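Subject: UAS domain-containing protein structure
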Amino acid sequence: MGQIIAKILSIIGIDLRPKNLSDDHRDRNPSPAPRWIFRNLTKSPFCVTSAVGIGFFVAGGVLACSLSIFDRIPRNPAEEAAGFVASFERHYAAGAEAKPNFLPVGFSEAKRLAAVHRRLLFAYFHNPKRDPYLTIFCKECLCSPAVAAYLNGNFVCWGGNIRATDVRNRILPPRSIFPLCIVFQVDANQSLWILRKIEGPLPPQTMLCILQRMVRLHSAAIPDSEYPPDRREIENFLRCFLFFMRSRVSSTLDLLGGFIS
């Protein structure tokens, strides 16, 4: 193995054989090889650049791993929502005539409030890295007086960054187009139904028409009971089906037991 390594190093121009060293000197200095290796390695530009490249590669991998671990640390959803609201008001709503009253709470709490007040839930997903229309949409559409007044009067409004804990782990639909807003319906059991995905930059008039249509069609459709009627029917059907299957399996096992005995 050592001869193979020496041959490879000699091909690229590194000679590990000691020069002009006597046996006495070898006895006094029994391990000069590491110094020769270092001296010859520093003389070869190929080896120097390779070593530097490997060092940068390892450092980059360690840094990326550290950042990914840090990004997965769970954070307080209420603090994230409050930070988003403060950032939105500072960057987009400053000087505007009106603005949506985004709740500084986590998405779970906003869902509970929508169920308690029997309102539709309007959620805005903020994506500063992949949304080229971010500033225009926030200032001209969400902060327009007509849209903001209608949102505040008819919806429970929630907004958050797509990297927030509640958004990343639960509700963000895949392959979404930004800007992205979603209108949810929440029943008394806090179950979610997506009524409308509003994707892409829209003028205020179009956004207002969509919101009015959602309220007209779905605002009064939230039942007072714990479950919607259609959900109760589905659960009753599944319960009867499971009881029927259990009875059939039991009778089949009894029949097989009779044949075996």
